[in-house]
């Protein structure tokens, strides 16, 4: 129904406007009682789907990636669609508009999206107020820096977000891999990244309960850079890695919008993100958990990532193209394989 009817209508309109319309629609439907219907349609309840990863218990291994619910406005309603966890953000200390519109593009022929949103969000404190109402949804907090903050002061922005979110999220994700904030990816270099993660980890150890800290990396890193990531995880003792963010590559694209600036997500990323997962898993001897994300448009895509070494998976573009049935399909396929 989604692909044949709903998606064909939604895809006639501007993607960013459709995003906000869909938010309003999902919220409205949940308010008038559709939450029960959504759960009946898409939720797969089975103890065999449960996963314990970096000390947290996930009801199933399929999560929603950061970027969809940036401001923690819809995490409860989205969890009713069958997700095992929801990652909010990327959040910054101060609210910011992000990059000028138009900044979100569908690449229908490639089953992909290019975005250059630029960490548009209302600021971490607004999100905290919404998270105070959470009742049982496992939440990841994806944090970044404001556009106007120079890299040499970036650690302060991440620290502010970490402190504000700490009582309200189950795990943290340090985002230094978005291509849409100027010079942000320079923080992936070994020295500044180690300093940033160590600062957050030191802060983490001062808390009575420690929260897992993960690093989200770009798919465009070289093998040598990926080996550096393994070393950094070992040295800082963070909990794990999310592989991968969007790519700046445009290889093999067919769509008219293929040359738009920004990060590419969707099917063109399927193979590369799985390669990164497998590389990290094999070269580290499975030393840390990996959340696999990038180009998951089918249950088989998800299973490939799990078999490559991911402990959990996340959806974004595949969710937009395939609809919530994809969540159910992945969970059912996992059960078939057990």
Automatic annotation (TrEMBL):
According to the entry, every stretch annotated as the Dihydroorotate dehydrogenase catalytic domain falls at: 49-336
* Chain sites annotated for binding substrate: 70, 115-119, 175, 180, 245-246
Name the species this protein comes from. Answer: Flavobacterium chuncheonense
Report the superkingdom from the record.
Bacteria
Cofactor note, please? Binds 1 FMN per subunit.
Q: Where in the cell is it found?
A: Cell membrane; Membrane
- Where is it chiefly localized? membrane
Which Enzyme Commission number(s) are listed?
Answer: 1.3.5.2
Cofactors needed by this protein, per the record, are:
FMN
Family membership, please give it. Belongs to the dihydroorotate dehydrogenase family. Type 2 subfamily.
- Encoding gene per record: pyrD
Protein name, please? Answer: Dihydroorotate dehydrogenase (quinone)
């Amino acid at each position: 129904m989604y692909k044949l009817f709903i998606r064909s209508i939604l895809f006639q309109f501007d993607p960013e406007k459709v995003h906000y319309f869909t938010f309003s629609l999902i919220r409205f439907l949940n308010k008038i009682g559709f939450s029960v219907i959504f759960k009946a349609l898409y939720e797969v309840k089975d103890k065999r789907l449960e996963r314990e990863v970096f000390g947290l218990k996930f009801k199933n291994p399929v999560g929603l990636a950061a970027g969809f619910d940036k401001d923690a406005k819809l995490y409860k309603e989205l969890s009713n669609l069958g997700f095992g966890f929801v990652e909010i953000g990327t959040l910054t200390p101060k609210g910011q508009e992000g990059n000028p519109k138009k900044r979100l593009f569908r690449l229908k022929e490639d089953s992909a999206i290019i975005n250059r949103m630029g960490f548009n969000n209302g600021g971490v404190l607004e999100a905290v107020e919404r998270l105070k109402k959470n009742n049982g949804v496992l939440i990841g907090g994806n944090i970044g820096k404001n556009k106007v903050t120079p890299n040499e002061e970036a650690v302060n922005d991440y620290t502010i977000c970490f402190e504000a979110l700490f009582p309200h999220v189950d795990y943290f994700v340090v985002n230094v891999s978005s291509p849409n904030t100027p010079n942000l990816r320079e923080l992936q270099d070994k020295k500044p990244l180690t300093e940033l993660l160590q600062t957050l980890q030191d802060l983490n150890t001062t808390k009575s309960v420690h929260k897992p800290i993960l690093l989200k990396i770009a798919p465009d890193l070289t093998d040598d850079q990926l080996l550096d990531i393994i070393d950094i995880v070992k040295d800082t003792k963070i909990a794990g890695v999310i592989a991968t963010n969007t790519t700046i590559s445009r290889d093999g694209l067919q769509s008219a919008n293929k040359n738009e600036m920004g990060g590419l997500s969707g099917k063109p990323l399927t193979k590369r993100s799985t390669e990164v997962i497998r590389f990290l898993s094999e070269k580290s001897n499975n030393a840390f958990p990996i959340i696999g994300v990038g180009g998951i448009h089918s249950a088989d895509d998800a299973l490939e990532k799990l078999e490559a070494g991911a402990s959990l998976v996340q959806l974004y573009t595949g969710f937009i193209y395939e609809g919530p049935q994809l969540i159910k399909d992945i969970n059912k396929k996992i059960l078939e394989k057990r």
